[in-house]
Design brief:
Elements (H helix, E strand, L loop, with lengths): L3 H7 L9 E5 L6 H11 L4 E2 L2 E3 L13 E3 L2 H9 L3 E7 L2 E6 H9 L4 E4 L2 H10 L4 E6 L3 H10 L5 H15 L7 E4 L3 H21 L10 H4 L9
Parallel strand pairs: 1-7, 1-8, 2-7, 3-4, 8-9
Antiparallel strand pairs: 3-6, 5-6
Bound molecules: guanosine-5'-monophosphate.
The site of guanosine-5'-monophosphate has 15 residues, from β5, β6 and α5.
């Protein structure tokens, strides 16, 4: 059974196309692992590639993980209204190019954004029908372990990211649904089920109520990290 909050939020009952899904949650919770698994296994779900002023980490490729741009380039895009949302995260700018999202949605292709909480709020305002998914860690200790285990960041950056993560966890209640990242495979299956349910709603013009009786979601663990 779906937990009460999921049902309540999904009962907003707005009919019409709702194919935009946002995956958010604190840094190091595993969002990018989930989206990279989905990219390989579910190419029918289009994934937005963000622009960022952060320098590439080793192994990251321009145009795959991000478009890496300078701050003036970013500002120019933002000034032209080319970004659907944007946010500054621990010293760097991140944003979602608007045109590709709109083009895919117009063609009925489900689109997925992996962005921070501040960006998710902007998407909520710009696209009220978007489904906002919060990816939560199994525990705070696990999140700390994952962030500290990353050797791509300095101690100072890790400390700052942990601070931001605390605030991001407090925003969980603003989201439509929480998936707890206990297993990448489970989260991917649950996300695909959610996105398919949205697509079915959009196609049928039906309200969201009752569309999530999907067996993939039956086992969705619902937990709040904070009282
Ligand atoms: P990272 O530097 O670890 O790749 O990303 C830092 C944070 O920025 C993560 O929480 C990630 O989800 C978020 N992020 C990535 N792209 C975007 C974007 O286009 N917009 C916003 N608002 N956040 C983003």
């Amino acid at each position: 059974m779906l937990a009460g909050k999921q049902q309540r939020r999904l009962h907003r009952g707005t009919p019409g196309p709702a194919l935009l899904t946002v995956l958010s949650g604190p840094s190091a919770v595993g969002k990018s692992t989930v989206v990279s698994r989905l990219r390989d296994e579910c190419p029918q779900i289009w994934q937005s590639v963000s622009v960022t002023t952060r320098p590439p980490r080793s192994g990251e490729r321009d145009g795959r993980e991000y478009y890496f741009v300078s701050e003036p380039e970013f500002d120019e895009m933002a000034g032209r209204g080319d970004l659907l949302e944007s946010a500054r995260y621990v010293g760097y700018l991140y944003g979602t190019p608007r045109a590709p999202v709109e083009e895919h949605l117009a063609r009925g292709i489900p689109a997925l954004l992996e962005i921070d909480v501040a960006g998710a709020r902007q998407v909520r305002a710009a696209v009220p029908d978007a489904l906002l998914v919060f990816l939560a860690p199994p525990s705070w200790a696990e999140l700390e372990r994952r962030l500290q285990g990353r050797n791509t960041e300095t101690a100072q950056t890790i400390a700052r990211r942990l601070e931001v993560a605390r605030a991001e966890l407090d925003a969980e209640h603003e989201f439509d649904i929480t998936l707890v990242n206990t297993s990448v495979g489970d989260v991917c299956r649950q996300l695909v089920a959610l996105i398919s349910a949205q697509g079915a709603d959009a196609e049928n013009g039906t309200a969201r109520q009752g569309t999530l009786g999907n067996s993939e979601l039956e086992g969705t663990r619902w937990q709040r990290l904070r009282p």
